[in-house]
Amino acid sequence: MKHLIPLMLVAFLMAGCTTAPDQPGILDDFIIVGYAGPPPEEATLERYREIAESGIKYLATGGSGNYSPEQNLKAMDLAYKAGIGIIPWDIRTLPYTANQNITIDTAALAGIVNDYKDHPALAAYIIMDEPYAHLFPELDTITQLFRKLDPDHATLINVNPSYGWVGDDYRAYIQSYIKTVKPKLLSYDHYSLRIDTTMHEMWFNDLSIVREAARGADIPYMVFVMSEGITNGFRVPSRAEILWQANTALAYGTRGIGWFAYWTPLPDHGWSIAREDGKSSLVEDHYNAMIDKKGNRTEIYEFVKETNQYLKKVGKELLGWDNSDAARFEKGQIVEGSSPVITPEGEKANLIIGTFRKDERLRIVLSNSSWDHPALFSLKVSPGWELDGVFASIDAEPGKGSDTEWTLEPGGSLILELR
Prior knowledge:
The chain is of the alpha/beta class. It contains nine helices and 18 strands. An eight-stranded parallel sheet has the order 3-2-1-9-7-6-5-4. Strands 11, 12, 13, 14, 15, 16, 17 and 18 form an eight-stranded antiparallel sheet that branches. α5 (136-149) runs parallel beside α6 (170-181) and α6 runs parallel beside α7 (200-217).
């Protein structure tokens, strides 16, 4: 399947720096990113505090027309006061990422570094979103230039999902990207909530492939998911679907979630440039993001806020734990992966199970693999291990008088401690 739209989503990291007061760098954190901030006329401290209130830790500008150095620096000033980091999108990078074999203007790229590198709210440098594989060598050249100009801040490129412009072998596409560009954080997007269907199998397939590739390279990964609708393409997620996207990725060991989008983007994302495919601009009818086109909170704001509160707690507590195994079960039968310690039983045992290890302890993340049906199951624990309590849960209900029988509502999650 061809990717319906190239979305301007990129999540980036900062190595060893502080992006906002008392906030660690992204590599030391569970990453929660929102794409598309307030448009220039709405750039106020109140608006940026509203972003922080939603639980978003890092904001990727763009989407609403923020691309100039002046606009990005203003966003950084406000974000720093609100306690969040900024991932600035600068239009000066676009000519060197939209076309192949173009001469790279090192002075222009150096200007980007000089404009942002000393700002305390800087989270990283944006290079590109959803590249074709043939652009990887040029992107490596640009990435190495940024690293040379500013070794204290890292870069990342947000790569395609399997239904994007990747050819027939998604695993090869991801591995080629890692080998060529050598990222410090692997980021991709996947929007499975189509208007007429949910790409269930493709969602899990991509998570499995990206997880495997990131583990092989010894780097973390994150995924951008839907928090809005796009006419003739994607539906607005329900509360359960917001939770489903985040919690199934959590069980697969993701180190971050990106929300597309925070503020409902402009139809053309606020930019226009000649591309290899002959298109000069994006035209997409976005609607009902966390903040609508008029600046009002939607129900998605509350859904994402609730999910972020859960992710902040459990994500932080899973840092430093090894996601050694991940498995998908349908009707109590394993479909793919491995779960060496916990086995679910039951005709409605539809689950993603992630095994996290640290020293002699285990944390088991169980997430409902369905966005529209509850999961009912009992748990069998391997000899040598026993349950030591519930670490966290959302939309989870234990069976009466039992710590091994559970119901997870659609999108629900449960994290168990074992010893």
